[in-house]
Every structure is written in structure tokens, then in C-alpha cells.
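Thread: S-adenosylmethionine complex, take 2
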Amino acid sequence: MDQSPIAVNEYDLFRRYLEDACGIVLGENKHYLVTSRLKRVTEEFSFPSLSEMMHTLVKGNDRHLREKVIDAMTTNETMWFRDVYPFEILKKDLLPELAAKKAPIRIWSAASSTGQEAYSISMAVSEFQQSNPGKLTSTVEIVGTDISQTVVNQAKQGGYDELSVVRGLSPERRDKFFRKQDDKWVIASDIMQRTRFTELNLLNNYSLLGKFDIIFCRNVLIYFSSEMKKDILERMGQILKPGGTLILGGSESPTGYTKAFGMQRYPDGVVYRLNDL
Ligand SMILES: C[S@@+](CC[C@H](N)C(=O)[O-])C[C@H]1O[C@@H](n2cnc3c(N)ncnc32)[C@H](O)[C@@H]1O
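Output below.
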């Protein structure tokens, strides 16, 4: 196969395609990154050249190819209890407040990757229940969504190899919340049963998911344009219950994009609360 980097006009075409398909904005100088990632897909689908793969891709009739290209271009990097503070705030501040309302609690992990975020939320709920017996009487449902079918399927299976199970997880939590099955660590059923995973592109409509008390939307907005960030943040505001909480990645903020949220500081860190109308 031809090893030369993607041509300038095709790179521009691909940038527009990717932004329309999933919101990801590629910089001006990512020709080599794009070439190497797309080369794998070109080979997998046995196209004679990257150029021919690109032409089939932009015609838009091959759903499987589109999924593989998005998979190749997205970063699925994640870990257990990523950044620690969101899960501390959940246990110390948000769950006590929500538990007192005695209504079903719904939490959305909006770019859930291979499931570590959603399952960490479920583990935090179990830890809250254990240290506050009888306080949390309502059900907790955690919905994990991601654009990539591959990672959604991995999340649903809930099985992790030795390398991924240690990233962010103490041996105590591993032994408490997983069981060993052959060469995998599998999420315990009480942690899994609060969660469900489904494919969802954040550019599409998500009002069908229902209303949430808390949205975790972490380490994904950084890839999107300002217009896309504004649109997603405002639509997330519309599916949060009154006073609901938005938890973003450490380098992300709604400031400058929408006035729907106000900053809430807790001893462990910062989250965003939906403002009253
Ligand atoms: C870096 S991971 C973050 C995972 C997790 N939230 C965390 O903070 O550890 C970003 C995830 O966003 C997903 N993603 C990218 N674009 C998306 C879109 N338009 N809609 C939904 N998910 C998207 C990717 O597939 C990837 O799994």
C-alpha cells in the first residue's frame, strides 16, 4: 500500500467529515497522525489506497466503515476514579443531599469509554451506603453512553485485564468490587446492576434518555469546537433536574459557553450546578 501522508485536499475533506460526524476538531498539522490511524482502517477493509477509502467514507453509505474511522480517531483513555475528587464530592456532598429527597437518583456518564467512570460511580454509591447505613433508600441508575460501539460493548461486558484493572484502583477496591474469572477481573453483580450502557453521539438528540440528577461529561468536550461545546452544554442543562449537577474534566468549564450553570466549590474540588430559571 502507498505509504505517503494524506494529500492536503483530502486532509481538509477529512477534517470537515470528522467534525460533522462526531464533533472532533483536528488541528492544521495532524497529517501524520491521521495517515497512520486511517492506514490501519484502509488495510482492514482492503482498500487499495487511503484515497479510495476516503472517497467511500465521505459518500456515507458504509456505516461499518464510518464506525471504524470514528473509533480510530477517538481517544478512549480512561481510568478508575479518574482525578479522585469527582467521586469524593459524589460521596461526601451530592449523595447525602440526593438521599434526603428519597426519590430515584439518575446519573449519566456521557462519554463513558470502556466503563471505568460509570462503574467508579457505582462503587462510590456502594461505599456511601456502607458508611451511611439506611440513609440511601432510593434506587440509583447510572447510564453510560459513548459514540463508539466497541467501547460500549467492552463496558457492558465489565471484564478487565490485569493492566487496566490497576489504573486508579487500589487492591482493596479491586478485591471488593471485582471477581477473578480466568484472566479477567469482572465487575461484581451489585455494582453492575445499577448501570446500563448504550451508544450515543453527543451531537445527536439525547432527550430520550430522560432527566438526570448528575451528569459526568469528562474529558470529551476538549475535542469539540466552541459552538459544539455551547450546544452540548445547553442541551445537557435541559435534561438535568432542577438544581442538578454537571461534573466536567479538570481542564473543562462551561464559562464562556453558557450561563445555564453556576460554579459550586466543595473542599475536594469544583462542580457546576444548574441555575434556577
Ligand atoms: C478520553 S475518553 C473519556 C472517558 C471518561 N469520560 C473519562 O474521563 O475517563 C473520551 C470518550 O469520548 C468519546 N466520544 C468522542 N466523541 C464523542 C461524541 N461525539 N459522542 C459521544 N462520545 C464521544 C470517545 O469515544 C471516548 O470514549
